[in-house]
Amino acid sequence: MSFATLGLSDVLMRAVAATGYTSPTPVQAQAIPAVLEGRDLMVAAQTGTGKTAGFALPILEKLFPLGHPDPTYRRTAKQIRVLVLTPTRELAAQVHDSFTSYGGELPMKSACIFGGVGATPQIKAIAPGLDVLVACPGRLLDLTNQRMVDLSKVEILVLDEADRMLDMGFIHDVKKVIAKLPTKRQTLLFSATFSKEITELANKLLNNPARIEVTPPNTTVERIEQKVYRVAAGHKRALTAHLITMGAWEQVLVFTRTKHGANRLAEYLDKNGLPAAAIHGNKSQSARTKALADFKANKLRILVATDIAARGLDIDQLPHVINFELPNVSEDYVHRIGRTGRAGRSGEAVSLVCPDEEKLLKAIERMTRQKIDEGSLVGFEPPAQSEMNSDRPERQRGAPANANGRGQRPANGSGTGRSQGRSDKPRSEKPRTDKPRSSQPPRAARVNSEPQDSVTEERRHQAHGNRAAPSTPKTDAPRRPAGNRPQREKPALFGR
Ligand code: AMP
Predict the structure, then answer these.
(1) What Rg, from alpha-carbon coordinates, does the chain have?
(2) What pLDDT, on the 0 to 100 scale, is given for residue 310?
(3) For 223-269, what is each residue's pLDDT tens digit?
(4) What is the pLDDT of residue 288?
(5) Is the CB of 24 under 6 A from ligand 1?
(6) Residues contacting residue 379 through CB under 8 Å, at least 6 positions apart
(7) Could you tell me which residue, 60 or 347, shows the higher pLDDT?
(8) Strands 320-323 and 252-255
(9) Which range has the top average pLDDT, 159-168, 350-359, 485-494?
(10) What CA dihedral angle connects 330, 288, 462 and 53, to 10 degrees?
């Protein structure tokens, strides 16, 4: 099949040719004609399938029929014609880049907005009215409440990576945004997986949608070669350096579970002659953008990232991904390794698994219905005691796999209303300690320890940027009963 059969005008065909795409990916072949017909869409497609062009190209065709401005449309201040919602800033920036690159020859006005950076340039960009606005829900709602954006004339809504939006607790913001849109509109919903929650959302939002499923849900992309290295936690840093060096890997994305872990690993690799930078929710937006740009431009060999910071990264020809620690949630494994093997290219994803992580590995293998091959450690010299990860080993937070193969979400407000991160062990099995109560670590210190906080932190960063979040007054209020879905902390602007 060629792009020529899909109903795109010459301007867009030239843009497609300029990117070097020769034929549409399966999701593009199905989505482009359906969007042009005006249908709502429900698409199960992971990042890497070419889904962005699958919606951006037909949307541009509809905005600019045959490459010309629609003569019936009059631009009005602050009004938006197409709204794309994404869960993260990085994904928003990438989707916006795709629109500007495909629409390079068109008189398109567009902007990209997200938290963590000043709002003034964003408000100015929106002021004249836009064809396309790509936005993260928190900042969009903020500006809408300040009447800086008028969503009442939106013609097309795209929800990109809807499953991530739900996982990150943005559902309330998304619903509030949707309430401000006209009911008569075209809605396109993209999600890597179709959980019960996403299907419920789709049933509410979509009108007789065309359903497109390009890879079976919850299976890893077959062209990605996957390996597991069973190794002591203290040997992981040395093994990471060994694999990169011995394999002469030119570009590697490494996932750690924690922000501090990302920093420590990047420092270690850097010190050992392997240039690396870390990106995570504590880094400023400019530091994140720079690290990503350097990595994309091949100026940086290794990018160490936490899950959320890395979400949606679109890096062409990324051949290697390392899971320095396995993710607590099995679906995140699929998202992580989807960074490699994009758009038909082959890739390799390796996971370093210490004994504590065996349960997580089993859950991933069960969910992806495969047994991951073991990599060879021949030639790897375990480091001397003094050279081992000197820092405290990454702590395994309550993540035993449950029956449906999902790990557990942290219990701090990032969950999807599923399990709440409590131990499966009955109380009586917990090891007793002889220490007097007072000498045990204070409860708060444990509750606030970093691994649990990564998702909450990222959301705080999305809302507040690098400013301190409004301090939460200490309270003796009773704890939320287990099982209640935690409420997302609201940015100060929303008031309570
Ligand atoms: P996405 O799933 O939208 O994040 O796209 C993943 C990658 O596929 C991006 O790097 C695109 O540039 C690339 N891509 C999109 N469409 C095509 C195509 N038709 N042929 C080759 N590569 C593509």
Answers:
(1) 23
(2) 63
(3) 678 999 999 999 999 999 999 998 888 889 999 988 899 999 999 99
(4) 80
(5) yes
(6) 242, 246
(7) 60
(8) parallel
(9) 350-359
(10) -70
pLDDT tens across 432-456, in order?
Answer: 333 333 333 333 333 333 333 444 4
- pLDDT over 90 at 54, yes or no: yes
What is the Å distance from ligand 1's center to 488 Cα? 33
Ligand 1 neighbour 50 (Cβ under 6 A): yes
Please report the atom of ligand 1 found closest to the CA of residue 47.
Answer: 2
User: Quick check: CB of 330 below 6 Å from ligand 1?
Assistant: no
Same topology, domains 3-213 and 224-387? Answer is yes
pTM: 0.57
Atom 21 in ligand 1: residue holding the nearest Cα? 21
Instruction: Tell which wins on pLDDT, 311 or 96.
Output: 96
Torsional class of 65: left (φ above 0), alpha (ψ -120 to 50), beta (otherwise):
beta
What is the 378 CA–ligand 1 centroid distance (Å)?
37
CB of 46 shorter than 6 A to ligand 1: no
Q: What is the dihedral of CA 373, 379, 381, 382, to 10 degrees?
A: 0
* CATH superfamily placement of domain 3-213: P-loop containing nucleotide triphosphate hydrolases (3.40.50.300)
More confident call, 300 vs 109? 109
Query: Is pLDDT larger for residue 49 or for residue 148?
Result: 148
Res. 81: pLDDT tops 80:
yes
> What b/e readout covers 284-304, taking b as 16+ CB neighbours within 10 angstroms?
ebeebbbbbeebbeeebbbbb
Residue 329 CA, ligand 1 centroid: distance in Å:
26
- Predicted confidence at residue 90, as pLDDT, reads 84
Beta-strand pair 252-255/302-305: parallel
- Residue 248 burial by CB count (10 A; 0-12/13-18/19+): exposed, middle or buried? exposed
Domain boundaries defined on the chain: 3-213, 224-387
Q: Residue 272 C-alpha to ligand 1 middle, in angstroms?
A: 34
* The pLDDT of residue 194: 81
Which residue do the tokens 């109380």 mark?
427
Ligand 1, atom 16, lies closest to the CA of 50
Instruction: Quote the ligand 1 centre to 67 CA distance (angstroms).
Output: 22
Ligand 1 site, residue 491, Cβ cutoff 6 A: no
Task: Say if residue 110's pLDDT is above 80.
Answer: yes
CA of 355 to the centre of ligand 1 (A): 37
CB neighbour list of residue 454: distance below 8 Å, 6 or more residues apart: 257, 258, 259, 280, 281, 306, 307, 308, 410
The two structure tokens encoding residue 87: 């869960």
* Angle of CA points 362, 381, 351, to nearest 5°: 25
Superfamily of domain 224-387: P-loop containing nucleotide triphosphate hydrolases (3.40.50.300)
Position 342 scores a pLDDT of 54
What is the structure's pLDDT at 346?
61
